[in-house]
Design a protein that fits this description.
By secondary structure, the chain is an alpha/beta fold. It has 16 helices and 17 strands. The protein has 3 domains: 30 residues, no CATH class; 135 residues, 3-Layer(aba) Sandwich (Rossmann fold); 158 residues, Rossmann fold, CATH 3.40.50. Strand 2 and strand 3 form a beta hairpin. Helix 8 runs antiparallel to helix 9, helix 9 runs parallel beside helix 14 and helix 15 packs across helix 16.
Length: 342
């Protein structure tokens, strides 16, 4: 039998727990370390309950992993993303500590986050200067997407790592399905990806995830310059003469209407032959650093190589994804709206 004196011998001494002759740092017992995607080791609470997510796209990853109840900050864009609000109505009540593009540090601190997730180096710096544990989840390709999902899952803890594994398996399956179906397909149409209908000269170049899904889908980026959201001239677009034009954050009818109004681009064969398409948008635009890239690669491959991908039912794939990861039952009409970018 253990005496009361022996029980009392377990004491908290100078911030340390003294247990059976072994000294354990009390702070260490309450924290753990994760390594972010820049290689930075960040000490975070063992049990994360409050997450400040300053990156639009990563809020969707938190939703996918079932951690949305832990969000104490988000971004204005996410608060107004129609399908995000449909799946998670509570997002409208989450604080968005921004004034324009600038973080309101005092507002961020008042949300008492256990950890901050960001992608912009300047935002990471501001959060760390405020002494908040901050991880950088930024990535540029599908391999990075998987790492970012796993990092976010590690931060959230609980069942999130298991969901991340399930997501990675689906993403790999869809990529492999596309590669299998395109075996033997020799044509690789050139694709111009325009960021949005508000500026037709802002496009996505090489060394981006956009470039990667174009390649995986059996296409070739019409832009040879590197970088996200880079500016080119209308003359450069005409010279590239893309076979297909995809416009982000727009429906196909909107995309075609705005391109036809452009005095230079309206003469492109892709425009004349209606090879201009709006990109699907769900809880986040599928084309831009989105967890729904798992669906984007299927959509893009079917767009570029419809015969090879004829057995893929995009409506069913979209409904399955939303039910599996968001626990939301889309109707067929809703899935069609998402695919149409509505």
């Amino acid at each position: 039998m253990i005496s009361l004196k022996k029980v009392a011998a377990f004491a908290l001494t100078a911030g340390c727990l003294v247990l059976a002759g072994a000294t354990v740092d009390a702070h260490a017992a309450r924290t753990r370390t994760v390594t972010d995607l820049t290689g930075k080791k960040v000490r975070i609470p063992t049990h994360v309950k409050r997450v400040a997510d300053l990156w639009h796209a990563n809020n969707q990853v938190v939703l996918l992993l079932g951690g949305q109840q832990k969000l104490v900050t988000t971004t204005p864009l996410i608060k107004h993303q129609p399908w995000f609000k449909r799946v998670d109505p509570g997002i409208t009540k989450v604080v968005a500590p921004f004034a324009g593009q600038e973080i309101q540090v005092e507002t961020l601190i008042k949300t008492h986050p256990d950890v901050v997730i960001a992608a912009d180096p300047a935002q990471v710096k501001v959060a760390r200067q405020a002494k908040l544990p901050t991880v950088n989840a930024s990535y540029q390709d599908f391999a990075g997407l998987k790492k970012s999902v796993n990092l976010t899952a590690a931060v959230l803890g609980g069942s999130a790592p298991a969901v991340a594994k399930q997501y990675t398996q689906l993403l790999n399956h869809n990529i492999n399905l596309v590669q299998k179906n395109l075996t033997g397909v020799k044509s690789r149409p050139t694709v111009l990806h325009i960021v949005s209908a508000t500026d037709l000269t802002k496009v996505d170049g090489t060394k981006t995830i956009v470039n990667e899904w174009i390649r995986l889908a059996g296409g070739k980026n019409a832009v040879t310059k590197e970088g996200n959201q880079i500016t080119v001239t209308s003359e450069e677009i005409v010279k590239a003469n893309p076979a297909v034009i995809i416009v982000g954050q727009a429906t196909t009818s909107q995309a075609r209407a705005v391109v036809r109004k452009d005095a230079t681009l309206r003469h492109l064969p892709a425009v004349k032959h209606n090879r201009v398409y709006g990109n699907p948008t769900g809880t986040f635009p599928w084309d831009r650093y989105s967890a729904e890239e798992a669906l984007q690669v299927l959509w893009a491959a079917k767009l570029l190589h419809s015969q090879a991908m004829k057995d893929v039912n995009l409506v069913q794939e979209t409904k399955h994804f939303y039910k599996t990861f968001y626990h939301y039952n889309l109707t067929t009409k809703q899935a069609q709206q998402i695919l149409a970018g509505k």
